[in-house]
Amino acid sequence: MKDLNPLQMILFFVLFLPCAWIAISGFIASGRSAFLWAMIIAFILSLIIAYAFRIADQWEKAVILRLGKFIGLRGPGPFFIIPLVDRVAYWIDLRVNTTDFKAEKTITKDTVPVDVDAVLFWKVLDPEKAALMVHEYTSAISWASQTALREVIGKAFLSEILEGRAKLDAELQKVISDRTSQWGVEVSSVEIRDVVIPSGLQNAMSMQAQAEREQHARVILGESEKLIASKFTEAANTYANNPTGIHLRAMNMLYEGMKTGNSMIVVVPASVLNTMSLGDTTGLIALAKTMEDQKGVPKVWSQEVTTSTEKQKPDTK
C-alpha cells in the first residue's frame, strides 16, 4: 500500500473549504438547514475526488483493477480512478532490484558440505505478468533463486565452485532466468559473494597448498643449481688452458675475502691449492717469512749479550 500523497490532502482542502465557507455563510444569513446538508455533500465529494487522484513516480507502474478485472496500467505521473469501482492492486517498481539468498549445508558433487551466499540483480519488464501471473513476485524470485543455487551446487565439484565462479554465475543466471521469465522478470546478473567450507577441510587445503608451493620452490632451486653447475663447467673449461687467468682469479678471491679488514681464517684443502696452482706460491711466501725471522733472531740475541757483558764488567780504574 502506497503512502498518502500530500497533493491529495491539498486537493481535498481546496475543494472543501470554499464550499464549507459558502454553506456556513448561507446558514448564518438564512438559518436554513439546507446549507448544512450542502456542506456535508461537499465534504463527501471533495473526499471522493481527492481519493480518486493518484500520482505514480517515474519508476512506477500502477496496476488498475475495475470490479476485480484488470483494465490497464497507469503512470508515471498523475491519474484518476473511479472510487469504489477501481482500485490500485499493485505498485510495480521498474528499477533494478537486488535479492540476497543463500544455500546452507549444501552437498557438492564430491560430497562436501558448503555454505554459499549470493546476490541477484533483477528488474520487472512486464508489470502485467508480474502482478497477475504470480502472487508476491518478490518472494517468488527469492525462493526460485535459492532452489536454483542448491541445484547448481549439487552438480558442481568444490574446486569448480572455488575457482570457476564466473562460470557458476552464468549457469545460475540461466537457471533463474528460465524460471522468472514467465513472470515478466529479467535477471541482469547473479554474483556469488562467499563460499564457506568446513574448518577441517580448510586446514587440509592449506596444507596441500603449502606443500605445492614447497614443491614448486624445490623445482626452481634444482633448475638454478643445474644452471650454476653448467656455468661452473664453462668456467673450468676456460681456466683449464689459462694458468695465468686462474692465478688472477684466485688472488682476486683472496682479496675479496680479506678486504673487509676483519680477522678471518680460511681453511683450504691442499688438493684445492694444488689444483689452483697456489701451493707453490704459498710455500714460497712461508719460506721467505721463516728465513727473515731466522736472520733477525741472532742479531737481537748478540746485541743483548754485549749489553749484559758491559754491565757485569767491573771498573779497574
Structure notes:
The chain has 317 residues and is of the alpha+beta class. The chain has four domains: 6-91, no CATH class; 97-197, 2-Layer Sandwich (Tetrahydropterin Synthase, Chain A), CATH 3.30.479.30; 199-240; 241-259 and 268-279, no CATH class. Helices cover 59% and strands 20% of the residues. Strands 3-2-5 form a three-stranded antiparallel beta sheet. A three-stranded antiparallel beta sheet has the order 6-7-8. A two-stranded antiparallel ribbon has the order 1-4. Helix 1 (6-30) runs antiparallel to helix 2. The chain is elongated and about 140 Å long. The termini are far apart.
Write the layout of secondary structure elements.
Elements (H helix, E strand, L loop, with lengths): L5 H25 L3 H19 E4 L3 E7 L2 E6 L2 E4 L5 E8 L3 E11 L5 E12 L2 H6 L4 H18 L3 H6 L1 H16 L4 E12 L2 H42 L2 H16 L11 H6 L3 H34 L5
Antiparallel strand pairs: 1-4, 2-3, 2-5, 6-7, 7-8
Keywords:
alpha+beta, Tetrahydropterin Synthase, Chain A, three-stranded antiparallel beta sheet, elongated, disordered C terminus
How are the strands of the largest sheet arranged?
3-2-5
Mean pLDDT metric: 79
- Please name the CATH architecture of the largest domain: 2-Layer Sandwich
Please give the alpha-carbon distance between the first and last residues: 145 Å
